[in-house]
Amino acid sequence: MSEKLVREWKKVFAADLPYVAHELKEAVKPKALILLDGPMGAGKTTFAKSFISDDETLSPSYAVLSETNTVLHADFYRLKEPEEIYHLELQLYLEDKNYFLVEWGKTYLSTILKEVPEEFDLYCLEIEVNSQAQIEDEDKSSFSRNFFLKKLEGY
Length: 155
What we know:
This protein has helices at 17-27, 44-52, 83-86, 90-94, 109-115, and strands spanning 2-12, 32-37, 65-68, 71-75, 99-103, 121-129, 145-153. By secondary structure, the protein is α/β, with parallel strands linked by helices. The chain has one domain (2-153): P-loop containing nucleotide triphosphate hydrolases (Rossmann fold, 3-Layer(aba) Sandwich), CATH 3.40.50. The longest helix has 11 residues, at 17-27.
């Protein structure tokens, strides 16, 4: 099991997200499973919206899976047990997809990998908020973020 840093972006604001998403698509060729990792409020769903270029991307309050064009977006925040992933029938959704973005997926990685076709490469996009105060209920929308794209191998 190894992680190799592929690309990083520092001090990214919301207006910069389309640029980061474009560069990420150049660095990560289809077919790719990309884990979006970061604390609550770091901007995982916001990044997914920018990556998909679709303001209709849903947050964890509404759906576990959101399907648009060639991207499947999953948010596993509300899952309680890894077995719930089997019931989602991910293989059916991923047949014609180039990218599979997964929020809150690290905990369930071994189960996810059993459901994702072998041709999908595995990446993790770590998102951290640049702030001295990382209080859960504080508005983080004006803070910049750092993004670290890592290729995961041997999982």
